[in-house]
Description:
mainly alpha, 3 domains, three-stranded antiparallel sheet, Rab3GAP1, Rab3 GTPase-activating protein catalytic subunit, GTPase activation, cytoplasm
Amino acid sequence: KFQDFVRWHSPKDWTPDAATVSxxxxxxxxxxxxxxxxxxxxxxxxxxxxxxxxASKQALIFDPxxxxxxxLHHLETVAASALFAQLTRxxxxxxxGIYASTDACTMRANATTVNAVKIATDTSSALFTRGEDHxxxxxxxxxxxxxxxxxxxxxxxxxxxxxxxxxxxPPALLDALLIAASKWDTEREINTxxxxxxxxxxxxxxxxxxxxxxxxxxxxxxxxxxxxxxxxLHGSMPHHRLxxxxxxxxxxxxxxxxxx
Length: 260
């Protein structure tokens, strides 16, 4: 019946009314809205004039076989750059969605973690919205998005870890630790060695905070050195730096790019 169609397609045009009289005991009690009862209503005319045909005999609006073949054809012919751009969009959206749903951003939210996730989301959205044409995106554009996601990941994992390691610590201490870690991330991009020597305990002015830190007894990490080697301005690799990490067990060298 037309009433059933309206209840499904446009619920706001159906007003339930238990006092409505109907000859069909199974019919829903209610009435159509004024616009649906109006004479000459387009929906009523279409309903009356539409041919009666069983759903099994109607042409499919969505054919899964045809759409599947189209998807396979797209994957066979899509350019590598376009596929990479699409996968990157999906990956960033999925990753940031996971971070935003963690306790660090919901139940035990703090400004530092929430702000890091928000910045990563805004950066990725602005970048990929601007770069609808995948050819317009450069390696530097992708690096900015990935770097923002990395900062969000660090902020989220730090917050989750601190809440598990310091379940009874004062909230002010946790906030101080997260803020200090955020500053460390910023300094690390400017001066790795200076960031490596950041000492948090000297910034704890509360006895409760100092007690919580002393009770944790963090283990010392292995002896290591970390530094950057900047390429000459007019050398063969301008605007590049070599990131070197030396520990007792291994030495790792990786290339990083940044604007001079």
